[in-house]
Amino acid sequence: MFRISQYLRELDAAIRSGAWPAVRTPRPSGPVVIWNLIRRCNLTCKHCYALSADHDYAGELSKAEVDTVMDDLKAYQVPVLILSGGEPLMRPDLFEIAERAKAMRFYTGLSTNGTLIDAHCADRIAATGFDYVGISLDGLKATHDKFRRLDGAFDRSLAAVRLLRARGVKVGLRFTMTALNQQDLPALLALMREEQVDKFYFSHLNYAGRGNIHRGKDSQFAATRQAMELLFERAWQSVQEGREEDYVTGNNDADGPFLLQWVAARWPEWAEALRERLVAWGGNSSGVNIANIDNLGNVHPDTMWWHHSLGNVRERPFSAIWSDTSDPLMAGLKAHPRPVGGRCAGCRHFAICGGNTRVRAQQLTGDAWAEDPGCYLDDEEIGLAAGADAARVALAPFGRRESEHA
Ligand code: SF4
Known about the structure:
Layout: E1 2-3, H1 4-17, E2 32-36, H2 63-75, E3 80-84, H3 94-103, E4 107-112, H4 119-128, E5 132-136, H5 141-148, H6 153-166, E6 171-177, H7 185-194, E7 199-204, H8 209-213, H9 221-240, E8 246-250, H10 255-266, H11 271-281, E9 290-293, E10 298-300, E11 311-312, H12 318-322, H13 328-334, H14 342-345, H15 350-353, H16 358-365, H17 379-382, H18 402-405
Bound molecules: iron/sulfur cluster.
Protein name: Pre-heme d1 synthase
GO molecular function, one term: 4 iron, 4 sulfur cluster binding
Cofactor: [4Fe-4S] cluster
């Protein structure tokens, strides 16, 4: 996750005080775990990485098994659990699991489509003490309902936002941008403010599940750049006005260098200090600071790697699976620097971005260590000779790899 607002708050403090603020180094800990507790979902969204549908899936972890895993996660110093699905609210024991997570002092988030949250459910979410609830909105009503393949989905999700806000629950909107909904971004940002939503999570499309099947509809680089500039401007305005809003992005770590470029063009005197902060962040953290456990107990480097299992928590504890680098993918993800090739290898921002998302590289080329074809920075921006773009991995629709596409 790339925290735009955090860096811009630091920049603002630096401009005001004349010195970049000291930032506390977090204590070493286990990874943030995104936990798909159930695969069933009442929706069948176009970009769902889990390929979920509205039926039960056999073999999901029982409550007792979830408890055992949770104990191991706590001992391994996992700080954050994001309870996800499918639609996690379809799991009958979801609140019991969340209550236990809270009692064990995990920061506990809920990732939901929001359509099942009525007043009673909102009361329960508030009483459980979820630290954060992320609700997906892929555009305004017409766009969202089409994406979510359910008439009325937008109204229900927006009603959920209101119900939760009214109960003081911290809420974020989650937006995954493609060529089909990019036009709604400004209006969604306006809606966020109108509804006094705390956080906006902008997700780039990653190529997993139905997101991979529909990758031909990914936004073009020019639209992505425009969207990022809009977010930067919005986040900066928010900082200037002293608002508590948070703007974050995910699934494209080139956002780090792009923010650096945006800041350098306006406050060149602070570019080096920001660069150092971004190098400390280090870009993509799949397999390092982000982990995923799916509904069957399989462990993955992140939610986009369901086609690659590192082991199952029924057979080995998560802590043992996570620290085992005998899997070549895990060894590469944990290597520093990662063994990424192509234009990433020669990129001057590699230390910031870390070579970006490995899933897109793997889905497009078959090689997890190829360059990320989703990088929207041009040759000049990454310090390569003009024209090197001709050799880069091209985006190809689902079913075709770049090598077959030329
Ligand atoms: S070229 Fe690669 S390393 Fe450089 S910014 Fe783009 S994705 Fe990141």
